[in-house]
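Changelog-adjacent note: as of this version, every example in the card shows the full chain rather than a window. The one below runs 102 residues end to end.
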Amino acid sequence: MPGSASHMIPGWRLIRSDRGRFWAFRERAFPQEALLAGAKPDLDADTFDDLKAAAARQEEIAEQVISWPGSPAHPDGTAPARPHPRLSPSVAKASASIELPQ
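Full-length structure tokens:
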């Protein structure tokens, strides 16, 4: 299966177990906000189609969390430029004023 053009999910590494179960592991880590929203970086399924659908759901979760109008991502594109919702207002205000190097 690895290397098979018919069994590829961009951005995910795939494994098929000796028992025929499909596994996928995200190549790049999800931002912390996506993980807190429920995005899973490792998946398993009985069929490739189920695995592909599960990976698409995880990407949708991450996209919903890190994309909203008027809020750009960090320069490296890994996380949104907004404070974590569990931060106190004073910590959130201080973290919002930190400038990242270009």
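Structural remarks: The beta strands are 12-16, 22-26, 42-45.
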